[in-house]
C-alpha cells in the first residue's frame, strides 16, 4: 500500500492526497537535518545521537525543547555534541499552547543563557515574523547565530515560519561527485521478493544500478563482491546515486546476516587489490569531560562515521591526559578491523561523552611510539581501575553547567 499525506486547507474543504512519490518530486530543496528528541531510554538515545551525527554528516541540527520542561540533562548533551562537531543548530520550543507564560519565560531565559555561555558562544535570534525568518535563513551560514522558534503543533502557531525557514536554508554540503565512489551503510533490511537491502549516504562519487561493487569488511577484514540490483531514493527507483544523497541499494546474492552497519560499499575495479582495512589508527583528540586521568589501556565506545565499536588506547604522546587536554592518541579496535580514512571525525564515550577528535593516520607502528618513553602496558589509573581517593581534575565540560 502506498503511503500518502492528506492535506486540507480548511475543515470544510475536501482534502487532497500527496503520495510519497509526489512529495519526492515536488520538494523544492532538501537538506540533511538531524533532529534529536527525548525518548524513554536515555542511553539508547545518546548512542543513536552519536552515531547519527557522525554517520549522516548533517548540514544542520534541529533541537526540540518542550516549553514546560526546558532544556534538561540529555538535551544539553545533544546540544553540546552538535556544537563540538561544528554543526549549525536551530532550536524549536514546542507546546507553547499549554505552557504558562511565566514558565515559558523561564525556558526562554534558560536557552538564551546556555546559548550565550562560553561553551556555546551563540547569538540566539527569536523568529517572530516572516521577514525576520527569511533574513535569518539567508544568514545562517554564519555559525554564530542560532534561530529559535516558538511553535504549537495543536494550534499550528508559527509552524509556517519553520517550514519557510527550512525551505530557504542555504546548502553547504562538502561532497565530491568526481572522487572515487564510497558509500557508508547505516542500516540493513531483508525485503520480501527483493532480498538484502542496505541504506546509507553516498560519501563521494557516483554509482549506477548494475555496477559491480565490493562490500565489507567482515570480521576477518575481507570484502565480498556483488552487484547492485536496483537503487531507490525517497521510495522512488532511480538509475544512479551521487555524492551527498541518501539511497538504498538492493544487492544480489548477499544474505542480510553477512552485512552490518558500519560496512562500506566501494567500486569493484579489475586488477585492483581489495581495499586496506585497519585495526589500529592514530587520532588527535580533545577530552571534553573525565573525572580522573586517561592513560594507555583505557577503553571506551568509539564512533567514527557509521562505525561503533569498543576501542582501547594503546599509546599516547604524554603520560596521561585530563579534561580539556589535546593529545595525539593511538587506538585499537577490540573486535574487528574497519575501513577508515584520514580526516574522519570520531567521538568516544563511556556513559557520557568523553572526547572527540579526527583521524590523522591509519595503522600504527610500535617501533615508532608516540610517547618518548614508549607505549605503557601497565594498568591504567582512574576510569576502569578506579584509583581510590584521587580527586577529580579540572572542570567537567558540558553545556549548561
Care to describe what's here?
With 401 residues, the chain is of the alpha+beta class. It has 3 domains: 26-167, 3-Layer(aba) Sandwich (Rossmann fold); 182-267, Beta Barrel (Elongation Factor Tu (Ef-tu), domain 3); 276-401, Translation factors (Elongation Factor Tu (Ef-tu), domain 3), CATH 2.40.30.10. The chain contains 6 helices and 22 strands. Strands 8-9-15-12-11-16 form a 6-stranded antiparallel beta barrel. Strand 1 (4-7) and strand 2 (16-19) form a beta hairpin. Helix 2 runs parallel beside helix 3 (73-84) and helix 5 packs parallel to helix 6. The longest helix has 15 residues, at 42-56. The protein is globular and about 65 Å long. It starts with a strand and ends in a 39-residue tail after the last strand.
Amino acid at each position: 500500500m502506498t503511503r500518502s499525506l492528506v492535506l486540507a486547507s480548511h475543515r470544510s474543504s475536501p482534502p487532497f492526497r500527496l503520495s510519497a512519490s509526489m512529495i519526492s518530486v515536488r520538494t523544492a530543496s532538501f537538506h540533511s537535518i538531524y533532529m534529536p528528541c527525548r525518548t524513554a531510554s536515555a542511553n539508547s538515545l545518546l548512542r543513536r545521537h552519536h552515531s547519527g551525527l557522525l554517520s549522516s554528516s548533517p548540514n544542520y541540527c534541529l533541537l526540540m525543547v518542550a516549553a514546560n520542561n526546558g532544556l534538561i540533562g540529555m538535551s544539553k548533551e545533544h546540544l553540546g555534541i552538535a556544537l563540538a562537531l561544528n554543526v549549525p543548530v536551530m532550536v524549536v520550543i514546542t507546546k507553547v499552547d499549554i505552557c504558562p507564560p511565566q514558565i515559558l519565560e523561564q525556558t526562554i531565559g534558560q536557552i538564551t543563557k546556555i546559548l550565550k555561555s562560553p561553551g556555546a558562544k551563540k547569538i540566539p535570534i527569536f523568529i517572530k515574523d516572516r521577514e525576520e525568518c527569511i533574513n535569518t535563513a539567508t544568514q545562517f551560514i554564519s555559525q554564530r547565530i542560532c534561530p529559535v522558534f516558538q511553535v504549537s503543533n495543536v494550534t499550528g502557531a508559527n509552524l509556517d515560519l519553520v517550514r519557510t525557514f527550512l525551505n530557504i536554508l542555504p546548502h553547504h554540503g562538502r561532497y565530491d561527485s568526481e572522487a572515487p565512489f564510497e558509500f557508508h551503510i547505516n542500516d540493513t533490511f531483508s525485503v520480501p521478493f527483493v532480498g538484502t537491502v542496505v541504506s546509507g549516504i553516498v560519501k563521494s562519487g557516483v554509482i549506477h544500478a548494475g555496477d559491480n561493487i565490493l562490500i565489507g569488511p567482515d570480521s576477518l577484514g575481507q570484502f565480498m563482491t556483488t552487484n547492485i540490483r536496483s537503487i531507490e531514493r525517497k521510495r522512488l527507483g532511480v538509475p544512479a546515486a551521487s555524492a551527498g544523497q541518501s539511497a538504498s541499494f538492493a544487492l544480489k546474492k548477499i544474505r542480510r546476516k553477512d552485512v552490518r552497519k558500519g560496512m562500506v560499499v566501494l567500486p569493484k575495479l579489475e586488477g585492483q587489490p581489495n581495499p586496506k582495512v585497519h585495526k589500529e589508527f592514530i587520532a588527535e583528540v580533545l577530552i571534553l569531560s573525565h573525572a580522573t586521568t586517561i592513560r594507555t589501556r583505557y577503553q571506551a565506545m568509539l564512533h567514527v562515521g557509521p562505525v561503533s565499536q569498543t576501542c582501547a588506547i594503546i599509546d599516547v604522546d604524554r603520560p596521561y591526559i585530563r579534561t580539556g587536554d589535546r593529545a595525539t592518541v593511538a587506538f585499537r579496535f577490540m573486535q574487528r578491523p574497519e575501513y577508515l580514512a584520514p580526516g574522519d571525525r570520531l567521538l568516544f564515550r563511556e556513559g557520557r561523552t568523553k572526547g572527540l577528535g579526527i583521524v590523522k593516520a591509519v595503522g600504527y607502528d610500535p617501533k615508532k611510539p608516540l610517547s618518548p618513553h614508549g607505549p605503557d602496558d601497565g594498568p591504567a589509573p582512574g576510569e576502569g581501575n578506579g584509583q581510590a581517593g584521587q580527586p577529580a581534575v579540572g572542570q567537567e565540560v558540558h553545556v549548561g553547567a
